[in-house]
Structures are given as structure tokens and as C-alpha cells.
């Protein structure tokens, strides 16, 4: 059977988005009225624009810009105002780009002339601060890189600029993408401090793309870019109630992104809905083409196409009871709704997980030493891992949340990637991780495997560190296969995502399935910025 192209999927999703529109949920209405602690000045931005920033999609924005009822300048101004009003509460955005409004004005000229460059032209995007930008600092959250910006943009930033996206600014992250201390606190960096979860402010946003996930939950940009080695896109997406796509390895260039491991690292799109995620992925992966009529519809509701459905799909449910009975109840409800929509859901347990957990970390230590040395050689500051360790010892601000750098020290002493023992580890990891997914899907004739993305967000605590033993992301992360987190429901006030994973290079199929799951679960709701949930801090 011929596989659908990403362009075909995008056309169908655009059509569905424009025909149906994004529903205004009761929670969104409450937030727009300033309920639950959101500043009224931020809510006013939606009223001025004439639509809800929480729920509007890129196709709807492009349709408005095409008919002249919206400009990129107005949209960018609205997001900048929200950042100014809301971000002091959540600390998700490290800095905004002083050229953002100039970028937006250039997009407005292109729209007036009919020379738009694609689906992201004029759309504000936030970048995780481990993605190189030539005109903004790129720090990975560390004071060691807080001096001069890199000399060149990351390859993915070049693609975003070429597509006309407005680079709105940089988001906070777990310092060094959570690969410094043995017991880190996700969302904390020496540069940006602690990012808070917008749903409950004393809860954690998960790492390491913490700022990207929290910023999207608070509607501080239309889309954001995250990065993942194992869980760092999908966990922040799940814990902040948004969508996150970890692409198949190699589909998005890692050139100019602060590394952990070339064998697992990838950047990927995050958004409040699947259509925006798919459109951003089409740009990051080089699939989008300027002037694509499917991506830039002229009239809402007039684009032909059909939103993908669930009937006849076979989905394997990997329950992961270790995440607790409340999360399992969310998965039970999810399975019931998918079955009601015509999907077949069967319970599965992918094999080899204990062995993957045993091998992954030692392999990453060797790879980090190799890859961070190569990256640091391109930047001002510490020139290699040994100098970086000495920098941290000499700067007390680097120890203000967690003092340790045990992972740095262990990586410095790890076997080189030329060592036969390391090579055997990575070969076994690649083999077992791929078999864990491939064999499960083949045995049960599945279109995808589904599992909980995350537990309810734990209370942020520097002394204790994270409570984030979340095994669902590992098979796809180690294999280099795609995964996609979609909002599934809530445990009290805290979001839980459902993680979908599939075979190598099956990103288009996974996004199509994710859109159908999103439509059926309809689980998103706006955050209320509660100071505390008043429940067990270990959850």
C-alpha cells in the first residue's frame, strides 16, 4: 500500500482545521476572562485580535493574513505582550528577539505582494536555548556559553528563517539538557532560573525542553522548537498539556545544536495542536515548499480534503502501571474512546526494556564526551569538557539549584567511542530498541504503540531533584524512531499525554494518527496558573 506523503497529510489536516475550527472550551473561556490568576492584560490580546490565541491554528492564521484581517505584526505584538504579562510567573522565555517586529513587518510585505514563503511565514516561533542563533545568545542554560552568540545559525534556524517564520526568542531549558548532575531539577538553569508548570506553578514542567513546553501551554508563541535525546520533547509536551513530535533520527538537521549524543539527538516541533506540529515539521525537515496552496489556503472552509480517522487502526496499549493508578485510569479512558471511534486497541509489553535501561546511559557518557568537545571547539568559552568542569567549579551561580556535575565527570572518564566495548554497547542498543518496536508491531499487526507520556507533574524541589523515571520514551529515542505526545487527559489539574510511537521514518503516518487521536480525545484545556495543587509532592 502506498504511504501518504507529508504534503498530502498536511493538506488533509489544513482542510479539517479550517472546516471545523478550534473549539473554545470552557477552560479557555475562563482563562481568556482572566480566571485562575492569568493577567487580564494578557487575555486582552486575544480580544484585540478577534480570535483566541489559545486555540487558533496556523492555517486559520494564514487564512486571516491572506484576506487582510490579520498581520504578522499584530500577531507578533500580541505574543510579545503575553510574554511580558505572563512570563514573570512561569519563567519560560529567556529573551525575546529585538528584531521580531522587523521580521513580522517583512512578512506583512510578502503577504501583501502574494509572495509568501510557506506555512510558517509570519508565524512567531520560540527556540530552545541550545539551538544556535547568530544574533542571540545560545547558552544551553550555562553561564559558560553566556558570552558572544555563535557565528552562524543552526541549520534548522536557517530553514525557519527561509520559510518566513518570526524568530520570537529563546526558551529556558534544563541546563545542558539535563546531562550535568546525577539528580537534576528539570527546567532549572543558571542562566534562566526555574521554569514553572503553568497548570500548577509549584509543579515541574519536565525536561529538558521545559521552557518550550511551558511557553506553549501559556500561549507565548504559536509553536516552539524542542530537542530530545530521550524524553526531552515528549515529556515536557505531556506535562504541559501540548503536542510534541520527536522525529525519526536524521530528518531534522542537528548541525548547530548543543549535543548530548549524535546517535539519539534530534530537534523537533512542539505546538498546541497536531496541525501546527505537522506544518512546523514540514519546514524543519525540508518538505514544505514556498507557495504551497495546501499550506496557504485563501478562504477558511473551502480547502478540499478529509481529516484522518481511527476506524480500522490497530493500536497497542503499553500501560506502564509504574506511573500509578491515576495515570492508568487516563489510559483506560483513552483506550475506550479510541475503540468507540473504530480503532482496535490491544494490550502489549515491548520486550528488552530492562536491557535498554542498563546499556543506554553508559553509551551516552562516551558519546557526550566526543560530541560536546566538538561543539565547544566552535564557541567562545571552555574549549572542551575538562575546561567546562573547571568552569562550573569556579562559578557559584552554577551551583545555586543543584551543585553536582557527576555526569560531566563520569563522561570525562568514559571509554572513547573508538573503544570496542562501547561499540558493542551501541550496536546492541540499536538492535534491541528497534526490535522492541518492530517485533511488537509485527506480532500484533499494529499501526502504532501507545503509552502514557508522563505522570502528573511532581513538585519542583532542588534538594530532591526530579521524580522522572518515565520509561515510555526510551524505545523510540534509542531506536531513532518517531514518537508523538498528544494530550490525553488530566489527573486533577495536571495534564497527562498519550505517547504514540511507530517504525522508522513513519513520521507522516504517526502525525496522521496523532491528529485523529487528538480529535477524538479532545483533551486540551487552558492552564489556570494555580499556585499549588495541594496534593502529594511526589506525584
CATH architecture annotation name: Alpha-Beta Complex
The CATH topology annotation reads as Amidase signature (AS) enzymes
Largest sheet: 11 strands, mixed
Number of helices: 17
Give the assembly state of these chains: single chain
- Based on Cα principal axes, name the global outline: globular
Helix content: 25-40%
- Total number of domains: 1
Give the C-alpha Rg.
21 Å
CATH class: Alpha Beta
Detail the topology: elements first, then pairings.
Blueprint: H1 6-20, H2 26-32, H3 40-49, H4 58-67, H5 72-90, E1 93-96, H6 100-113, E2 124-128, H7 155-162, E3 166-171, E4 188-189, E5 193-194, H8 210-217, E6 223-228, H9 234-239, E7 243-246, E8 266-271, H10 274-284, E9 314-317, H11 325-340, E10 344-347, H12 353-376, H13 385-394, H14 406-413, H15 420-444, E11 448-452, H16 474-479, E12 483-491, E13 494-501, H17 507-521
Helix pairs in contact: 1-10, 3-5, 5-6, 10-17, 12-14, 12-15
Keywords: Hydrolase, Signal
Pfam families: Amidase
GO molecular function: amidase activity
Amino acid at each position: 500500500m502506498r504511504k501518504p506523503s507529508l504534503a498530502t497529510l498536511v493538506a488533509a489536516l489544513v482542510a479539517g482545521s479550517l472546516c471545523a475550527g478550534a473549539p473554545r472550551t470552557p477552560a479557555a473561556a475562563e482563562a481568556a476572562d482572566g480566571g485562575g490568576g492569568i493577567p487580564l492584560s494578557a487575555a486582552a490580546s486575544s480580544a484585540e485580535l478577534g480570535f483566541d490565541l489559545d486555540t487558533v491554528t496556523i492555517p486559520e492564521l494564514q487564512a486571516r493574513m491572506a484576506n487582510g484581517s490579520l498581520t504578522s505584526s499584530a500577531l507578533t505584538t500580541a505574543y510579545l505582550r503575553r510574554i511580558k504579562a505572563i512570563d514573570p510567573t512561569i519563567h519560560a522565555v529567556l529573551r525575546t528577539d529585538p528584531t521580531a517586529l522587523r521580521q513580522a513587518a517583512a512578512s506583512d510585505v510578502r503577504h501583501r505582494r502574494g509572495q509568501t514563503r510557506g506555512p510558517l511565514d509570519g508565524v512567531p516561533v520560540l527556540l530552545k536555548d541550545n539551538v544556535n542563533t547568530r544574533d542571540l545568545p545560545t547558552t544551553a542554560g550555562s553561564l559558560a556559553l553566556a558570552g558572544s552568540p555563535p557565528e552562524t545559525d543552526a541549520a534548522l534556524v536557517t530553514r525557519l528563517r527561509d520559510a518566513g517564520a518570526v524568530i520570537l526568542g529563546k526558551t529556558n531549558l534544563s541546563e545542558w539538557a539535563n546531562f550535568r548532575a546525577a539528580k537534576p531539577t528539570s527546567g532549572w538553569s543558571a542562566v534562566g532560573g526555574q521554569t514553572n508548570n503553568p497548570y500548577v506553578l509549584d509543579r515541574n514542567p519536565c525536561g529538558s525542553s521545559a521552557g518550550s513546553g511551558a511557553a506553549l501551554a501559556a500561549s507565548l508563541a504559536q509553536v516552539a522548537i524542542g530537542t530530545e535525546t530521550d524524553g526531552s520533547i515528549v515529556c515536557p509536551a505531556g506535562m504541559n498539556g501540548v503536542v510534541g513530535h520527536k522525529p525519526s533520527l536524521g530528518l531534522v538537521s542537528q548541525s548547530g545544536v548543543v549535543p548530548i549524543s549524535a546517535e539519539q539527538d534530534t530537534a523537533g516541533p512542539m505546538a498546541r495542536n497536531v496541525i501546527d506540529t505537522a506544518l512546523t515539521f514540514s519546514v524543519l525537515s525540508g518538505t514544505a515548499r514556498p507557495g504551497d496552496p495546501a499550506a496557504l489556503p485563501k478562504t477558511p472552509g473551502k480547502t478540499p480534503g478529509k481529516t484522518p480517522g481511527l476506524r480500522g487502526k490497530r493500536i497497542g496499549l503499553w500501560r506502564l502501571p509504574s506511573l500509578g493508578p491515576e495515570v492508568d485510569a487516563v489510559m483506560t479512558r483513552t483506550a475506550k474512546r479510541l475503540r468507540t471511534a473504530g480503532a482496535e486497541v490491544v494490550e502489549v509489553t515491548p520486550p528488552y526494556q530492562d536491557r535498554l535501561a542498563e546499556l543506554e546511559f553508559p553509551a551516552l557518557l562516551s558519546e557526550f564526551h566526543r560530541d560536546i568537545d566538538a561543539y565547544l571547539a566552535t564557541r567562545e568559552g571552555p574549549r572542551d569538557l575538562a575546561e567546562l568542569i573547571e568552569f562550573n567549579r569556579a562559578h557559584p551561580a552554577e551551583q545555586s539549584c543543584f551543585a553536582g556535575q557527576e555526569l560531566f565527570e563520569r563522561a570525562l572518564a568514559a571509554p572513547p567511542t573508538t573503544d570496542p566495548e562501547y561499540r558493542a554497547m551501541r550496536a546492541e542498543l540499536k538492535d534491541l530498541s528497534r526490535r522492541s518496536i518492530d517485533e511488537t508491531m509485527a506480532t500484533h499487526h499494529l499501526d502504532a504503540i501507545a503509552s502514557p507520556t508522563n505522570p502528573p507533574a511532581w513538585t519542583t524541589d532542588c534538594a530532591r531533584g526530579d521524580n522522572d523515571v518515565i520509561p515510555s520514551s526510551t524505545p523510540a529515542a534509542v531506536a531513532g524512531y518517531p514518537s508523538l505526545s498528544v494530550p490525553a487527559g488530566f489527573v486533577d489539574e495536571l495534564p497527562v499525554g498519550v505517547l504514540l510511537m511507530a517504525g522508522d521514518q513513519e513520521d507522516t503516518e504517526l502525525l496522521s494518527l496523532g491528529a485523529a487521536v487528538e480529535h477524538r480525545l479532545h483533551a486540551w484545556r487552558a492552564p489556570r496558573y494555580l499556585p499549588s495543587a495541594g496534593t502529594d509532592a511526589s506525584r
